[in-house]
Amino acid sequence: MTQTHSTAVGYLLWLFGFTGAHRFYFGKPLTGTLWLCTGGLLGIGWLIDIFLIPGMDRAAERRYRTGSRDYTVAWALQTFLGIFGIHRFYLGKFVSGLVWLLTGGLFGLGWLYDFWTLNGQVSTANAG
């Protein structure tokens, strides 16, 4: 069975857990934002998350659809090149990818929006 998310990538992102990166990756944007704004709940939530990552991975596996688009690739593109819309081109969203490219990720706000919604976007792309 093909996996949607990687536990190993989750642990790698956990190293930057005070930013909420691992929580965004596993489809938990609310708590990801909370971790980002509070330094991983002052580091306490960040430390506890080392034990919660396997469960977050299992929940993501149940929630999101597998397919030709890889979640880890989409997240890497979003994180490092998202302001240019490269992740949107990867998902087949050429018009919005071009808009992101010409407007700096829709002036940065679209780039932030994609951190909240990327798992759903990949799942939708894999469905169609």
Description of the structure:
With 128 residues, the protein is mainly alpha-helical. It has two domains: 7-63, no CATH class; 71-127, no CATH class. It is 75% helix and 0% strand. The protein has eight helices and no strands. It has helices spanning 7-14, 21-25, 29-42, 44-63, 71-81, 86-90, 94-107, 109-127. 33% of the residues are buried. The model has no long low-confidence stretch (mean pLDDT 95).
Which structural traits does this protein have?
about 130 residues, mainly alpha, 2 domains, 8 helices
What Rg, in angstroms, do the CA atoms define? 14 Å
Residues in helices, as a percent range = over 70%
| Mean pLDDT across all amino acids | 95
What is the helix/strand order? HHHHHHHH
Largest sheet, if any? none
Poorly predicted runs of 5 or more residues = none
Tally of helical runs: 8
For the record, the count of structural domains works out to 2
Backbone structural class:
mainly alpha
Distance between the termini: 19 Å
The portion of residues forming beta strands comes to: under 5%
> What is the 3D form?
globular
How many DSSP E strands? 0
What's the short story on this structure?
By secondary structure, the protein is mostly helical. The protein folds into 2 domains: 7-63, no CATH class; 71-127, no CATH class. It has helices spanning 7-14, 21-25, 29-42, 44-63, 71-81, 86-90, 94-107, 109-127.
Please write out the topology:
Layout: H1 7-14, H2 21-25, H3 29-42, H4 44-63, H5 71-81, H6 86-90, H7 94-107, H8 109-127
Helix pairs in contact: 1-4, 3-4, 5-8, 7-8
